[in-house]
């Protein structure tokens, strides 16, 4: 897997990423995708989501502020995406925090073909029927075995699962990778995970092996966050947020290759 | 009242703050709460708001872009919060600008037990049935007696009323405090008041005396704004907005104690 | 046309701008209007939009994340604005990307009196029935004659048409102006066009000749963007976005007069 090549491909092709996402993160998600070099579009209405999804490079579904109308639009868009071979990414924000979120995430997984799920450990555990603790939409790092959780969830849902946290795990049930980039201050920026899910969509739009596309997206994002944190270390989360947008635009394929750390399982560096 | 102690308690406990707020300020509110050290969650659907409100440390209702579905969700969430002893904060954004906003604010006050209301003078006057001038959601500083307005509104609604402006007034009808922190450039950042209401929620989640929690939240926010303005004085409102997020994270309990100015009524410094 | 005079008038009068806009750009639009010196308000509910529109200085309709309820509110608000002589601005975001967007933009143009439309070439071409290519909400610069498109669309819809891109064209069908300010990095900030449409609303609120108000708004915005880009040239789109908000507040009437480049047709400088 050549991380820099996939990043360059996103920038060259500028795929259209159709987001049905929550009202908290729409602006930051769109700006992050633009900074990366992708083309964001948000469209929610049942009247148009099929038309938009079918011309997109990827469809990203995020349940952060869901309601019945939005869920219906997600199903319509997801079916159109599935019919046209457009990859669908799911971000199960806050699954486990309320029964409605958990059941909606499970419904989307049941009715649609999902290329990848990205969430924290508690969210993934909850949609997989394991009762990990969660507070609101900030998943507490559970005590369980995150590597095993990623594998079993990937097998259960026949998809690629990315669990992000101190270290990120990517698994399709047989191959499991660990991505060791990123920075803790990301947890102080709302929608940092949601934007990452959208970026996973952009990478999956141009690289059809989803384990590779997801791991490359995570490494790219982690490297950008590391550089942004280095440059704004003492300034606070406001400055970091802005510098993250800068670095998503500025980070080069070479830097991602050089700084990206991806290991097979929890062990040897395979990158 | 020890301002620094309450701030430290918020940071230690990181209360979950459930916001049902307007679409303009969701991102800024969430980032401000994260910067403070609280855990924001936005949830709007009737299907889940009761589940979210009952596990929250506080529920913050903001009518800035209301519609009938959101109002229904506010009532459901508010009842669940009331049943579980979760304090409810109301921000009556734009009350007085349209009859719908005024009557909705009044309905929420009638049907729910509200721990505190935060608004500008015109908003509070309008929901109290006094016809102060208001332009859109930016309340003009009326000519009336703001101290008296806060007291009478607190008595009328059996709640703590915070009227923010050049000076901030906090009253429960018997005790009335004036908070003399803040900076005029806050009026150039959309949602500066809405974020303050959410922060009032975070402080009220950890300090059960609402006059104290509200005054402490106002002093903390005002001190952060003052420092942010000092650091970005000539740069403009964009830079100030980012530095405010920084300072919400960086300001120490000691700085808030040292710079916070809270007086009893309009007179003696009681802090 | 005296560019500086119109800008100063906006700042002196601080018109209330009622926006019914998309969920991606609400915060940035509100902050940009505040930075300019206008008073933004967002109100969407059928229950209140007529009350808000009739007291506004301008109504700005943006179809970026439309749904049937919002379209109904746009019609109600638009009729109230029309009845009370409040100018209405239309931003047909993504017209052409889906049939729903195209037909909704056309419906608004048919049922309401619109003072000005602002969009990119593909959006304007699509609502005028010309099939220019568009990808999502980012209009590709078509190969057609943009000057001719602006003129013919203005005649077709009996309104002022502003097509923004590398150069901006403003036409009422007989007078056509070209505005040569701005910077390419604007395309890396989501909602840069949407904010411009809202600013067109603010200028049209205080200057009744819409060709003048629209051209002045475009020149002001372009000059602010140029200065912001000069100050943040290498830093990236995050820093540019914040500096743009700064410059919208800081740029003086004198600077706009000095740097604004407006030519008649595509030729002689008429400013």
Automatic annotation (TrEMBL), chains A, B, C:
> Which SUPFAM superfamilies does this chain map to?
Ribokinase-like
Give, as in the UniProt entry, the pathway in which the protein acts.
Answer: Cofactor biosynthesis; thiamine diphosphate biosynthesis; 4-methyl-5-(2-phosphoethyl)-thiazole from 5-(2-hydroxyethyl)-4-methylthiazole: step 1/1
Q: Name one GO biological process term.
A: thiamine biosynthetic process
User: Known CDD domains for this protein?
Assistant: THZ_kinase
User: What InterPro entries is this protein classified in?
Assistant: Hyethyz_kinase, Ribokinase-like
* Residues in the signal sequence: none
Positions bound to substrate: 42, 191
Source taxon at top rank: Bacteria
Annotated binding of ATP, by residue? 118, 164
The role this protein plays is:
Catalyzes the phosphorylation of the hydroxyl group of 4-methyl-5-beta-hydroxyethylthiazole (THZ).
The protein, known as: Hydroxyethylthiazole kinase
The organism is Mesobacillus foraminis
């Amino acid at each position: 897997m050549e991380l820099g090549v996939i990043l360059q491909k996103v920038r060259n092709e500028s795929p259209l990423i159709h987001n049905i996402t929550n009202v908290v993160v729409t602006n930051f998600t769109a700006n992050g995708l633009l900074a990366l070099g992708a083309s964001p579009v948000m469209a929610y209405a049942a009247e148009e989501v099929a038309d938009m999804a079918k011309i997109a490079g990827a469809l990203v579904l995020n349940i952060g502020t869901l309601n019945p109308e939005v869920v219906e639009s997600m199903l319509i868009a997801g079916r159109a995406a599935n019919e046209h071979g457009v990859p669908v990414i799911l971000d199960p924000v806050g699954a486990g925090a309320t029964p409605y979120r958990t059941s909606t995430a499970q419904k989307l997984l049941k009715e649609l073909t999902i290329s990848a799920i990205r969430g924290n450990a508690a969210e993934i555990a909850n949609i997989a029927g394991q009762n990990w603790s969660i507070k609101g939409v900030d998943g507490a790092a559970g005590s369980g075995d995150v590597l095993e959780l990623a594998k079993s969830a990937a097998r259960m849902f026949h998809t690629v699962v990315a669990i992000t946290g101190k270290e990120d795990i990517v698994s399709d049930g047989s191959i499991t990778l660990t991505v060791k980039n990123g920075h803790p201050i990301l947890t102080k920026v709302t929608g940092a995970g949601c934007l990452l899910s959208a970026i996973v969509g952009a990478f999956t739009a141009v690289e059809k092996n989803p384990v590779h596309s997801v791991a490359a997206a995570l490494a790219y994002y982690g490297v950008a966050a590391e550089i942004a944190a280095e440059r704004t270390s003492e300034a606070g989360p406001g400055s970091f947020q802005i510098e993250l947008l800068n670095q998503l635009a500025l980070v080069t394929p070479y830097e991602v290759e050089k700084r990206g750390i991806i290991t097979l399982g929890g062990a040897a560096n395979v990158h």
